[in-house]
Amino acid sequence: MCLQGVKLRVPSDGTAWGEKRRRANRYLLQLPVVFSWKDAHGLLRQGQGQTRDLSPCSEYVVAAETPEPGDLVRLEIFLPRITAAVRELRILADGAVIRVEDLPPASTTRGFAVVNYKSILSDHLVPISMKAEWARPARIPPRRQEDVSA
Predict the structure, then answer these.
(1) Rounded distance, CA 122 to CA 93, Å?
(2) Alpha-carbon distance 92 to 119, whole Å?
(3) CA-CA distance, 53 to 47, in Å (whole number)?
(4) CA dist., res. 64 & res. 107, Å (int)
């Protein structure tokens, strides 16, 4: 699990960080990404950009509009096709924004780092605007009494 053993803290200056060092290799890949999150007013927001790098547990995204530290975000990262015989693959990830950075002054983009709590590789078309299922932790349904006794 990507968040196991990582404590996220958001200090008063609005920055965020993980208390443990990375445990996975990062890969410098610039891939198209669309993402959604709920803002401070509870409104569903959407953005698009590209990854700067990623690992099995996290991503760094560069975009014109970004969520804030502590926001939950859903990402859909589009992987390039290897051959015509292979379907288009996507990485679907839900995570928490741990850092947002302004990029060089001449740039109109910002960058943000996400630590995943859930991610899958998918070959199905899944629209980013799944409003009923926006970025939130997976919930395990309570066990029924008859399931426990079986």
Answers:
(1) 10
(2) 5
(3) 18
(4) 9
Nearest to 103 by CA among 75, 63, 68, 71: 63
A 10 A CB-CB count for 110 gives 16
The pLDDT tens digits along the chain (150 residues) read 454 444 444 444 444 444 445 567 888 999 999 999 998 899 999 999 999 999 989 999 999 999 999 999 999 999 988 887 777 889 999 999 999 999 887 788 999 999 999 999 887 655 544 444 444 444 434 444 444 444
Residue 16, domain CATH:
2.40.10.220
Residue 36 and residue 74 in contact, taking contact as beta carbons nearer than 8 Å: yes
**Distance in angstroms (rounded) separating the CA atoms of residues 138 and 5:** 18
Q: Is residue 97 part of a domain?
A: yes
Domain count, the chain: 1
- Please tell me whether the overall predicted TM-score, pTM, comes out greater than 0.85 for this model: no
Query: How would you class 135 by CB atoms within 10 Å of its CB: exposed for 0-12, middle for 13-18, buried for 19 or more?
Result: buried
Tell me if 65 is assigned to some domain.
yes
14: left (phi over 0), alpha (psi -120 to 50) or beta: left
